[in-house]
Amino acid sequence: MTYVLQNIGSPVSYDTGLKLQKRAFEFVQNGLLTGVILMLEHLPVVTVGQRNTLNNLLVSEDKLKQLGIQLAKTNRGGDITFHGPGQLVVYPVLNLNCLKKDTHWYLRQLETVIINTLRVFDIQGTRKEKYTGVWVGNQKIAAIGVHVSKWITQHGLSLNLSVDKDFYKLINPCGITEYGVTSLSDCIGGFQIKDILGQIKIQFENVFGIRIIEGHMNDI
Questions:
Q1: Per the confidence metrics, is the pTM higher than 0.70?
Q2: Cα–Cα distance between 191 and 19 in angstroms, integer?
């Protein structure tokens, strides 16, 4: 079984991220790869989950345009969230037929990847009983929303590294109002992005029991 991790260096639009996921899905669906994990940073975008409601958007769509923020409706689970500079977005496109055909198990595994990564940096990440995601205290540091088709996963998770939290004032993140938002930079004095990327890879390998090749899916 071959799993490929592909890092996208420069920030990309949300539409580009969708195209990359579609290509990865085709690789996995056609049996060329068992999984592709895309790691990237997005240009500013507010995404809405499959509930397709804007109840938790706190400004007008015109205001988002004025601020240069894209609004995208998606087929992932969950409510509304923000992606943008200072945030690591991870899109695992995995064939759960080869792992475990259980969406709830998969969500908990993604949370564990983040919790274990944070632990390496002496940060205690926790779960909230009613919600999907990872918190530090009462501040959310990682959001998770997925879509599963033919037991192949799409979308995934976002980990705040040094994101401008003013963006979150435009929404009720994930529809949650009782908790705030934090970043890795709020928790520790300094870190190297390459160290975060390296730990994410290690934790995916450990948590899912797989081995990942770093490279480009088209090179396999």
A1: yes
A2: 30
Which secondary-structure segment (H or E) carries 145? strand 139-149
- Considering only CA atoms, give the Rg of the chain: 16
Q: Where are the alpha helices (DSSP H) in 54-192?
A: 61-66, 103-120, 184-187
Please report the DSSP string for 186-212 in residue order.
HHSS---HHHHHHHHHHHHHHHHT--E
Question: 85 and 40 in contact (C-beta within 8 Å)?
Answer: no
Query: Which of 24, 113, 174, 181 does the annotation list as catalytic?
Result: 174
**pLDDT tens-place values along the chain, 220 residues long:** 789 999 998 899 999 999 999 999 999 999 999 999 999 999 999 999 887 679 999 999 999 999 999 999 999 998 999 999 999 999 999 999 999 999 999 999 999 999 999 999 999 999 999 999 999 999 999 999 999 999 999 999 999 999 999 999 999 998 889 999 999 999 998 899 999 999 999 999 999 999 999 998 877 6
Question: Is 174 considered catalytic here?
Answer: yes
Report DSSP state, residue 169: G
Burial of 160: CB neighbours in 10 Å, binned 0-12, 13-18, 19+: buried
